[in-house]
Request: fold
Amino acid sequence: QVDQFSCRQRTKSGCRLTRLAMAPCAAAYVGRCRCTIDLDELESWTRRDIAALAHRNRHYGLAATLFNEAAFYERAEREWLPRFDRVYTASRIEAERVAAMTAGVEVRIVSNVIRVTPRTPKSRRNDDFTLLFVGNLGYYPNQDAVVHLIRDILPRWNTCHYGEILLVVVGGGASPRLPKRMAGVPRVVYQASWSS
Reply:
């Protein structure tokens, strides 16, 4: 998404982008008015991390694709981010990485998390409860998280006698293997979409 304002008055005008993929849309505005970009994530690092996860899971084709995408985004970040007047990131580590490739560009951190007031947990240890996992299951890390929950977390949890978990997974885009894998697991429910 590109928010465009008149570039005639430099003090009140600007161009604001919300994704790196939109950077070429700002080409006509860069240098003519104040341009900022808000990065959800540093795409090159995110793709590289997901590629490493896919490789560990022996999904070599996906890993290769993601490593290639990481290289593409790294080139795009080095080309486009230095052209902006200000870059917003979500974390300190991303801000440091952006600052290293954008000498002279103002980098600010706008965290995308909120602080939650801690509560004292109730002392009931053996109550059953529902764990709701909602996410785009076409996004590889979300698929991996569901498999991790089913394969590693639920069996350990249930042997600790904390009560049983009903895992409800909601999200579209799952590969055909994921719903099949969930179907054979007790106390796991899959819904491709949410209905109230």
Notes: Residues 7 and 13 are 5 Å apart (CA to CA).
